[in-house]
Write a structure and sequence with these properties.
heterodimer; A: mainly alpha; globular; B: mainly alpha; two-stranded antiparallel ribbon; 3 helices; elongated
């Protein structure tokens, strides 16, 4: 095992610890605002995982879109609710036992499935395509996956218009 | 003199990170997201749990793409990463529509606890 591999392994365990600890924050923070901030840390950890997996473009997208845009949207939502409510938005928990049973069952089913499956791992698994990775994604989006690309832009347009229509204040006579 | 730093070889063979490690991490994250969706009282916190589950699925997609390196006619395929991009775009839509629904719930019902919203008439 080379030094680089050992450092990559150490990096994985460090990032995994950050992700799981911040996910615990999402589960148990008393204020929704704090839970959203914990989610931000978790998403940045997932971005670091993408970097470890040599997915450079996804690393940037995860930080820009997920950690940047989606989390800020959620934080805006929480703060708007705080204004409507006139106080901190608290998030209690309920059904703790049934939630724990369901989550543990889900995890052990997944664990059993993946431990009993033998995955084929390519010998060039650690091959880093470098910047070619980004070029490949760009080419795939405009050739092989063009239909999905165009469809998703339509979905985003519909979702944004729908969000504005749903969230706007109704005029009294409407 | 050899100045290169040699890290301690304290790893058991099973601790060397492979595909399974990423899959187990993703399974844990998915289970935690499910727990948040089932136990949180506030609708925004439920949305946060959904984001955790989407991210777990994305980790799986990217890890499979990296470790299996699919090829098509000699050229490497990046379908797993493209799939993850689509999931990220859909997550953005879901967050926007979900927040709009929650705001509208507050205006009309005065509560954003999913349990308390059980009437079809507005």
């Amino acid at each position: 095992m080379t030094d680089a591999q050992v450092f990559a392994d150490l990096g994985f365990y460090l990032v995994a610890a950050v992700i799981l600890l911040s996910a615990l924050g999402v589960l148990f923070a008393r204020r929704v605002l704090h839970a959203a901030l914990a989610l931000l840390v978790c998403l940045l950890g997932v971005a670091a995982l993408y970097a470890l997996l040599a997915a450079h473009f996804l690393f940037a997208v995860q930080i820009l879109i997920y950690a940047g845009a989606i989390t800020i949207l959620l934080l805006f939502g929480v703060m708007l609710l705080q204004r409507l409510l006139g106080g901190g938005v608290l998030a209690g928990s309920h059904n703790l036992l049934s939630g724990l049973v369901a989550a543990a069952a889900m995890f052990f089913v997944l664990l059993g499935a993946l431990l009993t499956t033998s995955f084929t791992v390519s010998p060039e698994a650690t091959a880093d395509l470098g910047a070619g990775n980004v070029a490949l994604i760009g080419r795939a989006l405009l050739s092989r996956d063009l239909l999905a690309f165009e469809a998703i832009s339509l979905v985003i347009l519909a979702a944004l218009i729908g969000a504005v229509v749903i969230a706007r204040k109704r005029a009294p006579g409407e | 003199m050899n100045l290169s730093f040699t890290p301690p070889q304290l790893f058991l063979p099973g601790l060397h990170v492979g595909l399974e490690h990423y899959l187990i991490l993703a399974a844990l994250l998915f289970a935690m997201g499910l727990f948040a969706v089932m136990t949180r009282r506030h609708a925004v916190a439920v949305l946060l749990g959904l984001e955790l589950m989407l991210n777990a699925a994305n980790i799986n997609l990217v890890a499979f793409n990296h470790f299996q390196q699919p090829q098509l006619g000699g050229a490497p395929l990046v379908s797993g990463q493209v799939f993850a991009l689509m999931v990220i775009a859909l997550a953005a839509c879901e967050a926007a529509v979900g927040l709009a629904l929650i705001l509208s719930l507050y205006r009309n019902v005065g509560s954003a606890t999913p349990d308390e919203v059980d009437q079809m008439k507005g």
